[in-house]
Amino acid sequence: MFEHVHVHPKFFYVKVFLALIFLTALTTAVAYVDLGYFNTVAALVIAVVKASLVVLFFMHLKEQEGMTRVVIVAAVLWLAVFIVITLSDRFTRHWVPSNGPWEGSAITAPQSE
Amino acid sequence: MSAEAQSATLVAEQFEDLEQQKSADTFGMWLFLVTEVLFFGGLFCGYCLYRNVYPEAFEAGSHLLKVTYGAFYTVLLICSSLTMALGVRAAQLRLKTSLTVYLILTWIMGAAFVFIKLRYEWYGDYLEGLVPGVHFAPHGENLEIIHHFHALLPHVSLFFLFYFCMTGLHALHMVVGVGLLTTLLIFTQQGKNTQGNYYWVEMVGLYWHFVDIVWIFLFPLLYLIGGRYV
After folding, report:
1. Would an 8 Å CB–CB cutoff place B98 in contact with chain A?
2. Distance between CA B21 and CA B24 in Å, rounded?
3. CA-CA distance, B202 to B49, in Å (whole number)?
């Protein structure tokens, strides 16, 4: 049984590990450089790359069957729907003038300086 | 023991064979991880929203955290992910001794994470008045570099609410992970993980790597926002 299981050499995992350590050092270093908005972008891009390395190689996504891959795509998709719809609500509220009851709630209050 | 007889003791009665059981178990585990993504997703969504509403306050809050702790945890978790992945490999190769060693190493790093977080970082945060609530009154380092700190204070408190909830939920997952590793160690000693059914180790591995991924996002989002160059 499991004769077909493909066992990776140890070095395969060590390579992924070294890449993750390098990216951790990189993300920390980048935070000390003033890039304006791109600090956040860089931090998120590096985090996504690191997460992808873990999912693809440590969690063996590359060797999973199709159904499992669909499940992972669904997770990312639903998380995106969750965040995008919530943020689109917040950022479009001022497009339509309103005196509704939520005008003065914490979420639409002007930012304090 | 013949291959058939050995296989029969490993396969639960609702499955045709080991292959089908493995595929069902793996699929179920990934499905569980999806619910976990959405479980943490609620906090990440709230975080995104309020960070956009109160960007200065979130940067100010982040500057009160110690990057050293965040970076140290990240390295610790990546090391534990490596030992976990090597543990799965050892289980695939049916190497009982290496599997035990890797599981113990992973266990130690997981327990160290929780211990250092609770004993040193959170306790330090508590001493610096960073716990949100009526007594929220930060008085640690870095306060002088933040402009208009007192005007931002109520929303800095909101940042720390997110900080404690997100790292708290993550630490809770670490505790569960350490518990799972303990169970795996017992099963390994009974020889259950090295007779061809390596996938229990793989399931716990999936969970462990997932918790690592959550931290990979928490580190830049909580510890590194707003840049450190000020």
Report:
1. no
2. 5
3. 35
d(CA B165, CA B119): 17
User: Strand, coil or helix: what is B55?
Assistant: helix
Q: For position B129, what pLDDT does the model report?
A: 86
Residues 6+ apart with CB under 8 A from A12: A57
User: For B143, which DSSP code?
Assistant: G
pLDDT, tens digit (0-9, with 9 covering 90-100), for B201-230: 999 999 999 999 999 999 999 999 876 665
Question: Of B4, B67, B45, B17, whose CA–CA distance to B228 is shortest?
Answer: B67
Residues 6 or more apart whose Cβ sits within 8 Å of residue B118: B171
Tokens of B28: 């179920």
Chain B residues with CB under 8 Å of A27 CB are: 219-220, 224
- Its ipTM equals 0.89
| pTM, to two decimals | 0.89
Helix orientation angle between B18-53 and B149-189, rounded to the nearest 10 degrees:
170
| H helix intervals, B93-148 | 96-116, 123-127
Residues of A in contact with B213 (CB under 8 A): 50-51, 54-55
